[in-house]
Amino acid sequence: MNAMYLERQAQALTKIHSAGLEAQLILGYENIRYLTGYSGNAAYLILKPSGNVLITDYRYFERAKTETHGAEIYERDREAQTLGAAIAMFLVDETKVGFESAFISVAIWHDVAKDLSHLTLTAKNGLIESLRAVKSSWELASMRKAAAIADEALAETLKHMDTGCTEHEIATELDYRMKRLGSDGVSFDTIMLFGARSALPHGKPGNTTLNEGDFVLIDFGAVINGYRSDMTRSYVFGEPSEKQKHIFSAVEEAQQGCFDILRSGLDCKTLNATSENVLKKFGYESYMGKGLGHGVGLFLHEFPFINRTTDHQLEVGNVITIEPGVYLPDFGGVRLEDDVVITEHGFEFITHAPKSIRW
C-alpha cells in the first residue's frame, strides 16, 4: 500500500516540475487522500522533491499518523500559529509554488498569502485530477465493491415500495441498507422521486406518496475506501402508459447507443452527441439533460466530463457514468445511469442492477 502512494507522489512531482513549479500546495481533500491515504479534514499537503509535509491540528493528528504514507506530519497549534506561517516553515528552499485555488476560499487564501509573500505563487488546478482519471486495479476493486453493495441494497429496498410510502421513507431505507451491507456512507444525498417530481433531475426526497402509475426515479451510490458508485434506475409503479413507455424507450435506446460505440480513443463530445441524437429522434430535444455523464472515483463528479465541450479522448482506466435523461415538467422523468470502466477491448460494467420499466 505504501508503494502505491509513493508512486502517485512521484507522478505528481513530475507533473509539478513540468509545470515549472518547485512545489505544490494540495488543498483538495480528495487529492490529499489520493496522494497519501489520509482520509480526514483540516489538512494541507505540501508536495516537494525534498520531502512532503501534511499539516493538520490536534483533532486529526493521531489519525493522520496512522493513515498517511510518504509525508511528514506536522501538528499546527491553530491558536498560536497561522496557517500561512506553518506552510512557510516547510518552503525554505523553494520559490515557485503552485496552489489549488479551486479548494480554498478567497478570504482564507488572502490571509495565507500574507505569510508567503516571499514566494512566487501560482494558481494551478487539475494536476492531481489528471492522475486520478485513470484508475488502478485497487481503485477499481473498491468501486466494484461499492457498486455491488448498491445493487444489493436496491434489490432489497424495492421489495418495500408500495402504495402510500413516501420518497423520504424509501430513500432512508435505501441508505440504511447500503450502510448495513458495508458502505462507508452514501456517495451523495440519495435522490428518490415519485410521479411528476421525477422530472426534477436532482430533486430532494420529500413527503410525496407513491401512487399507481407513478414514475419512480432513484439516483444513489455506496462508498468503499472513499471510492463511490453512482447509479440511477427509473421505473413505473404499476402498469405504464404509452407515453411513459415512449420516454423510457428513448432513454434506454440513447444509453445503448453509447454502449455500442464505447471504447478507448472515443472523444467525449462524440459520445455525448450519440445520446443527444437518439433523444432528438424521439422528439425530446427540449427535455433532455445537458451532458451525458462524468468521471467518478474519490469525488462524485470528476474528470473526464461527457458533454458538448470536453475535448478528451477516453483512456483505458477511465471510469465514467453514462446517464441520458428526459425530464417533462408536470409529468415525470426517466434517467438510466451506469458506471463503466474503459478497457483495452471496450468497456466493462461496474453497476449491474437490472433495468426495466417495471421492477
Automatic annotation (TrEMBL):
Signal peptide: none annotated. It comes from the Bacteria. The keyword Protease applies. InterPro entries: Creatin/AminoP/Spt16_N, Creatinase/aminopeptidase-like, Creatinase_N, Pept_M24, Peptidase_M24B. One of its GO terms (molecular function) is aminopeptidase activity. Residues 8-134 form the Creatinase N-terminal domain. Residues 142-344 form the Peptidase M24 domain. The keyword Protease applies. This is Aminopeptidase P family protein. It comes from Pseudoalteromonas xiamenensis. The lineage of its organism: Bacteria, Pseudomonadati, Pseudomonadota, Gammaproteobacteria, Alteromonadales.
